[in-house]
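Hey,
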Amino acid sequence: MVDIQAKPVDWRLGPFFRLRAAFTAAVVLTAAGCIAGSGAYAAAEIKDAPRWTKGSDFSSLKDWNLKGEQIVPHGSNPLYYPITPGHKHALERRDHPDGRYRKETVVLNTTEDFDIRDIGKFKTAVVQEEEYLDGALTQRTLNWIALDKATNNVLSFGEVSWKIEDGKPSFTGTWRAGDPDGDGVAEPGLLMPGTFKVGERYIHAGSKSTSYGGAENMEEGLQATVPAGTFKGCVRVREQDLIDLKDINDEIWCPDVGLVSDTSDGKLVISNALPSSNPASNVSSIGKLRDKPAKQKSAAAKVSIADAKRIAIERMPGKVTDVTIEKKRGRNVYVVEIQTGSGEVDVFVDTQTGEVVGTD
């Protein structure tokens, strides 16, 4: 458990592909609990949950005075992890509903070029995140992150991601600041201000059609204990999806090492930003799971596909359009896709017991 004590107050990626394309966490708050299966806090269970309804509640691009000549791909913000090529860290969440979860982050030795109207030309760092469940690589995301050297703000200019199945990637989505976005243009997001002020709110992801979120600085002067160590002078930031307002995450960020706990992604276990005397500074394990992904092993299904369809239809009347076996909420389940009168719904049926363990 995370111990929080508050004081008052053109690039190339591995052997898979080449693309030219158009960033949190089991933080423990004494006031709220985490909902199993969602990785996010329910607003109703957080006594200080924000009531955000629109992007105008936050500072955004129009407030930040961004200039291309001031934006650099590499550097450091006191509360962020080092944005320097070769930086590596990993978070783990063993209570993840789908299995043992791990996210590995690496700042790659490459940059991404941008040329945005009213900002100008500049380069961003390319930060790779790889997600694993029970030792199997399941998702890869490249984030475009940069530093405004005038303010020390850390900024996001978008991302591109892939789902990984059997070692093969399939594109899942992207957003990129400066590109068309619905009726407008996607804008940058602020990941961490250079000067932390409690109560400050800002857009952290600027695509209103794909990835649109706000953040609020909730607390400062915290102490956090996670597997990688005990850290002081930390801050708590709350993020909320402005498309799905029920999706809320809390993050703890600490000086020099950056993110140490996140309600979705877990707790910091290793980072090469730590002193070499700390065993958790050894990041040699990062990448090993990717190179030799574990094979998912599951017991033979006791429930037939036909029975799974029948059970799912009883729960959610409609027409079955697809059935697959996946690991969800720590179990092997049939994912029964059903077309209903109001849209498409997935019903999860346990392959061993026939129990409906959830819907999506």
